[in-house]
Amino acid sequence: MLLIDPVRMLPSLLLPLVGVLFVGGFSARSYAYAAVGVLAAIVFATVRWATFTYEIVGDRLETKRSLISRSVRTIPLERIRGVDVSTPPMHRLLGLTILKIDTGASGDEEEAKLAGVSLDEAERLKALLLRRTAEPAGDAHVPHAAAGPKERTIIGVPRKWLLYGPLSGAYLLTPFAFVGGAVGLAFQWGDDLGLSQDDALSAGEWLWGHPYLLIGVAVLLVLAMPFAGGLMYAVFNWNFELKRRDGYLVAERGLINRRSVSLESKRVRGYEIVDGLAERWAGVVRVWAIVTGLGDSETRGQLLPDVPRTVAFQVTGDAIGPYDAALRPHPPVARRRRLFRAVFPWLVLAAVSVAGLWATGGVFWWVLLVLALLLAGGGVPLGLDRYASLGHGYDGGRLAVRSGSLRRAQAVVERRAVVGWRLRQTWFQRRAGVLTLIAGVGAGKGGYSAIDVAEAQGVEFAAEVTPEWLAPFLERGES
Fold first, then answer.
1. What percent of the chain has pLDDT over 90?
2. Between the chain's N and C termini, which has fewer beta carbons within 10 Å?
């Protein structure tokens, strides 16, 4: 850790060190100041390492830090929802790991982090911290050592499926992200590197005077999108494995930083299957678990990267439980609302373009009119697809709701996870006779919506899933 911490501090120290060297004119004194800064970082890392301890005392974990002021954090073992183990490159070279403890009480942040424990110690701590909630009460008399870990691989994602990565869309903007980061660093370090605002303006004017160069760079970035996106996707999801281990679902992935995420099975309340347009055409989906008390669910809750749809349903059925019912369609008025939203804004833009063309006759208005009409025409299949994606259903044990087109999501939630219902109706929905039914769930996003269901349909669906809640109100209404 005395090697890792100073190296990890280098990015934050780089800018001050470069500034000291430039201001000092790269003299012997400036090098001495830079050396003092590096030495101070090493001393800080040494003191932080020497003053941090952790201890399991009875039914709680205590972490203590006394760098400047003494602080003690106590975490009851029964509150621990997950223990994640990751191995960044430097940790892997030195045989260390980072162990993060999540209780779900700190939002997207971990409750505690042990930044440098050995591989064996990480596995020992993981088993010990999760044992309290994993072991059934009736098996408390069974010695833990004798029981041993029980592990079963649910799926190992083949490497050839990594080719689906660019379809997810999230990784496609990687080249633009790198360029944006480089520009941001240039602006941040500009003063220290002797670059003024005048230099930036001059560079911008030069680029503006060479539009073909800008177009060429943009084309190269667009062409690089699938390759760079696929590479980043492969780095993050390399050798993805989903396992069941001692009452936990364990997802392991990563090439450079190997990460292991544990989700307590008895706290999993369902799953969410997501796909975009390109993924739908290829027949692949991504899957997230819906878990109570889970922080950073977008990252920690991922059960599967892009895999074939049939495989996703098989895995979710095995790991969590199947959903065995067809989705019910929404009323035709929902289709009209989808079409109106997808087409009407572009028709308004086309009308504005016609008015501008009549007033000025400029080429700009011709171009804008053509684009508006093309987008309005493209809105028709988009609106129809949005309507076709709407659906809700109940199979007696789990309910499902689906919506979206460019990003279609279907949430499948256990009935016991529903803690309430919310019926929401805008002014336009009231005129159309539809409403949005939201199932309140104490897990995942907190609520999952059936959009634009008929008024009677929404009430009947809520009564079907939780009849004991709504029956008295329905009887009172009938009487």
1. 36
2. C
Tell me, what's the pLDDT at 13? Answer: 59
CA angle 455, 456, 460 (to 5 degrees): 125
Give, for 476, the enclosing helix (H) or strand (E): helix 467-478
User: Nearest-5° angle of CA 77, CA 98, CA 86?
Assistant: 105
pLDDT at 259 > cutoff 80:
yes
DSSP per position, 287-317: EEEEETT-SSHHHHTEEEEEEEHHHHHHHHH
Q: What is the pLDDT of residue 338?
A: 95
| CA distance linking residue 8 with residue 272, whole number of Å | 36
| Position 303, amino acid | L
The torsion defined by the Cα of 245, 246, 247 and 250, in degrees rounded to 10, comes to -20
> How far apart are the C-alpha atoms of 147 and 255, rounded to whole Å?
32
- Does residue 431 carry a pLDDT above 70? yes
**Helix boundaries (H) for 24-152:** 28-50, 89-93, 119-134, 144-147
Nearest to 154 by CA among 268, 280, 236: 268
Which residues fall within 8 angstroms of residue 319, CB to CB, at 6 or more apart? Answer: 154, 242, 244, 249, 303
Q: Which two tokens stand for residue 193?
A: 């590197």
What's the pLDDT tens digit per position in 319-363?
Answer: 888 899 999 999 999 999 999 999 999 999 999 999 988 888 778
Closest by CA position to 442, among listed 424, 417, 425: 417
Rounded CA-CA distance 185/174 in Å is: 16
Starting at the earlier edge strand, list the strands of the sheet with 241-245.
Answer: 112-118, 96-102, 82-87, 258-264, 248-253, 241-245, 151-156
For 149-189, where are the E strands, in sequence order? 151-156
Report the distance separating Cα 413 and Cα 444, nearest Å: 10
123 near 133, Cβ under 8 Å?
Answer: no
